[in-house]
C-alpha cells in the first residue's frame, strides 16, 4: 500500500504522523505532502527520514491511498484527481460528508458503509459529530433515539495549530500584562467562551451546529431525527466536551445504558459519583477513547438520559478516526483497485 | 437605615461595597463585618473610612438591615439573631432559599413576594438561577414554560476569591513551566472544564444543578416544572454562560420573544448574526445586565426556542441582586420595624 498524507504539517496531520509510528501502521511507501511553505521539512518515522513534498496533481498516480487533512476547497480539487488515478481518499474536510454517494464513517458505528457504497472517497465526520456518535450510536442500536439536545464546550484545536498557539500566547500576555494577540479569533479567548465562529446559516444555527445535526442524521440513518446543537468554544487546548440530553423511544433503564456503554469499543465510562470524578479535557487529552460520565435519568421524563461526553478532538475527533479507516480498508483489497 | 454588610471581604462582599459607592446607596450608618482574620482592614467609602468589625451576636441590635454573604452555616446562626433584634436580613447563602415562608427574590421577576410574605429574611437565589430566570421569567409571563434543559459554563468566581486567584496563578505557572497550585479545586483548572464540584445527590444530579431546578420552580411558582440542568465549570473568571433549550406551552414566535426580551429590565439582547457577535464572559463581566443571544427557533419542534445567556456571577448573580433588594425595602418602611 503506497500511502500519502496530504496536509501533514497541520494540527491533524501531525497527529496522523504520530499515530502511524505509534500504531505501527503498515504501508509499502509513505509520502508526505503540504503546501509550498513546508517544503523541505523532514520527519523521522520508524527510523526513516521523510521529506515534505509539494502537493501537485501528478503525485497521485503512484499512490493507493491518501489521507487528506486540508480545507474543503483543496480537498474537492485534489480528491477528484486522486480517484481518477485510482487512489482512495480518506477526507477530513467537510467537502464530501453530505454527499449521498459517499460514506460518512466512524469505524465503531457504521464501518459497513464502506463496503455498501464501494466509494473511493470516504469522509471523516466533523470532530464534535464523531465524539457524540461514539456514545449515542450504540445506545441507538438498542433503544432508538427520539431527540437529542447538545451543548458543546469546544477546544482551540478545532481551529488548528495557530489557534492553539494563539490561546497559549494569551496566557503569556496575561502574565506579562501585555496586549493579547487576537489574529485568529478576533477576540480574547483566555478567560472567555464564545459561540462557535462559523457562519450563521439562514435558520440562525451556525455551520458547526448544522454539521452535527446533518451528519448525525446521516450516520444514524434517520433523516428526520429531532436534534439541536449549540456550539461554543472554551479556552481548552485539544479535547471537546458535550452536554447531551438524549430522549429515547422506550423508557430508559440506567443499568441498561451502562451495560451498552461498557461494551462499546472506544468508549470509556468515567462516572465516579463518590469522588466527584467525571470526564475532563485534561484527563481525556491524548487518549484514544471517548469518555462519558454524569450518566443519569433526566428529571424531565422517563425517556431521557443526561450525559457528559469528552473526546480528544485531534485523535478520535479527526486523526485516529481517519487512521482506523485506513487500517480497515488497507486489509480490504476490494477497495484498492490498482 | 442602619446597614450592615456581613462577609464584606469575600468576592461578593467586595462587590457589594463597590456597588454601595457606585450607586450612591442610601444609609444612615454603614458597618462592615467579617471573620477575625480581616479585623482592622479599612475601606474608604464615599469619603469615609470604614473599619472591619468582628461578626458577633450583639452587633444586630443597632442595625435595621444586614446583607449576608457568608456560608450557609453562618447565615443560619446569625440570621436568627438578626431578626430577633428586628434587623431585616438579605441572605446570599442557600440556607433559607427553599423555606416556603421565605421569599426567593429577583426584583425584576418577583418583587411582590417581599410584601406578600412580610418575611424579615429575604433570600437571594443561586447565581446561575438568577441569570437564567432574568431571561426566562418574562417569557414565562407571556407564553408559559413547559420544559427547560440547561447546560452551564460557570466561572471561577462562583467558588470565591481564592478560586479566582488559583485560576490566575495557574496561568502564571503555565508560563513559568511550574507545578500548578490546585488547593481549591484539586485539579488543573487552566485549559480544563469539569462537572460542578458540589455534592452528588441521590438522584445523581449535583447540588448546584438541584439549586437551579428547585429555585426556578419556586420563582416561577411551578412546582412541577420539567427542568434539567448540567452544571460545568470552565476557566473563566467572573461571568457564567448558560445554553438553554426552552419549550413553551404555545407555539413560539421569534419576533414575540425578541419583543418580550427587549422590554425586560436588566436584560440586553446581543445577537448580531452578521458580525457573529453574541454574549461572551469578557463582554458581560462587570456589567449589570444579563445578556442573551443566539435566540433561534429550535430544530426540535415549533414550541422550543434556543438561547445563550451570559451574566456577571458576582453582580446580577449575587451582589447587585442583593443591593437592589436593599434599595427596594429601604423605601418600603413596612418591613423596617424598629
Provide a descriptive summary of the structure in words:
The structure is a homodimer of 338-residue chains. The first copy, chain A, has 338 residues and is of the alpha/beta class. Chain A folds into 2 domains: 2-125 and 318-335, Rossmann fold; 128-313, Dihydrodipicolinate Reductase, domain 2. Helices cover 33% and strands 24% of the residues of chain A. In chain A, strands 3-4-2-1-5-6-7 form a 7-stranded mixed beta sheet, with helices on both faces. In chain A, strands 10-8-12-15-14-13 form a 6-stranded mixed beta sheet. A two-stranded antiparallel ribbon of chain A has the order 9-11. In chain A, a hairpin with a 6-residue loop joins β14 and β15. The longest helix of chain A has 17 residues, at 315-331. Chain A starts with a strand and ends in a 7-residue tail after the last helix. Chains A and B meet through β8, α6, β9, β10 and β12 of A and β8, α6, β9, β10 and β12 of B.
Mean pLDDT over the full residue set of chain A: 96
For the record, what is the CATH homologous superfamily label of the largest domain in chain A? Dihydrodipicolinate Reductase, domain 2
Query: How is the CATH topology of the largest domain in chain A named?
Result: Dihydrodipicolinate Reductase, domain 2
Question: Largest interface, per-chain counts?
Answer: A-B, 56 and 55 residues
Name of the level-1 CATH class of the largest domain in chain A: Alpha Beta
What is the chains' assembly state?
Answer: homodimer
* Number of discrete helical segments of chain A: 10
Level-2 CATH architecture of the largest domain in chain A: 2-Layer Sandwich
Largest sheet geometry of chain A: 7 strands, mixed
Q: Which structural category do the helix and sheet elements of chain A fall into?
A: alpha/beta
State which percent range the strand residues of chain A make up: 15-25%
Percent helix of chain A, as a range, is 25-40%
Globular, elongated, flat, extended or rod-shaped: what is the shape of chain A?
Answer: globular
Strand element count of chain A: 15
Amino acid at each position: 500500500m503506497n500511502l500519502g498524507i496530504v496536509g501533514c504539517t497541520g494540527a491533524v496531520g501531525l497527529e496522523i504522523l504520530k499515530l502511524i509510528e505509534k500504531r505501527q501502521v503498515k504501508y509499502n511507501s509513505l509520502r508526505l505532502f503540504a503546501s509550498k511553505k513546508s517544503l523541505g521539512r523532514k520527519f523521522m518515522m520508524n527510523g526513516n527520514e521523510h521529506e515534505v513534498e509539494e502537493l501537485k496533481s501528478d503525485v497521485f498516480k503512484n499512490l493507493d491511498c491518501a489521507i487528506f487533512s486540508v480545507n474543503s476547497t483543496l480537498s474537492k480539487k485534489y480528491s477528484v484527481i486522486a480517484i481518477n488515478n485510482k487512489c482512495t481518499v480518506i477526507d477530513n474536510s467537510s467537502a464530501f460528508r453530505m454527499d449521498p454517494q459517499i460514506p460518512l464513517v466512524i469505524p465503531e458505528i457504521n464501518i459497513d458503509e464502506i463496503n455498501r457504497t464501494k466509494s473511493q472517497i470516504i469522509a471523516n465526520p466533523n470532530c464534535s459529530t464523531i465524539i457524540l456518535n461514539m456514545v449515542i450510536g450504540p445506545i441507538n442500536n438498542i433503544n432508538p433515539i427520539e431527540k437529542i439536545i447538545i451543548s458543546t464546550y469546544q477546544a482551540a484545536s478545532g481551529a488548528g495549530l495557530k489557534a492553539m498557539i494563539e490561546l497559549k500566547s494569551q496566557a503569556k500576555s496575561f502574565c506579562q500584562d501585555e496586549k493579547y494577540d487576537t489574529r485568529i479569533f478576533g477576540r480574547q479567548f483566555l478567560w472567555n467562551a464564545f459561540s462557535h465562529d462559523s457562519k450563521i446559516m439562514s435558520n440562525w444555527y451556525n455551520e458547526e451546529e448544522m454539521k452535527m445535526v446533518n451528519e448525525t442524521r446521516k450516520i444514524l440513518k434517520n433523516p428526520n431525527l429531532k436534534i439541536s446543537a449549540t456550539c461554543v468554544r472554551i479556552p481548552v487546548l485539544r479535547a471537546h466536551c458535550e452536554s447531551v440530553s438524549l430522549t429515547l423511544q422506550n423508557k430508559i433503564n440506567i443499568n441498561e445504558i451502562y451495560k451498552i456503554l461498557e461494551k462499546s469499543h472506544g468508549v470509556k465510562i468515567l462516572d465516579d459519583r463518590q469522588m466527584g470524578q467525571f470526564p475532563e479535557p485534561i484527563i481525556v487529552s491524548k487518549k484514544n477513547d471517548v469518555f462519558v460520565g454524569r450518566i443519569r435519568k433526566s428529571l424531565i421524563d422517563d425517556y431521557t438520559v443526561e450525559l457528559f461526553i469528552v473526546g480528544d478532538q485531534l485523535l478520535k475527533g479527526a486523526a485516529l478516526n481517519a487512521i482506523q479507516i485506513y487500517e480497515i480498508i488497507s486489509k480490504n483489497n476490494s477497495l484498492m483497485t490498482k
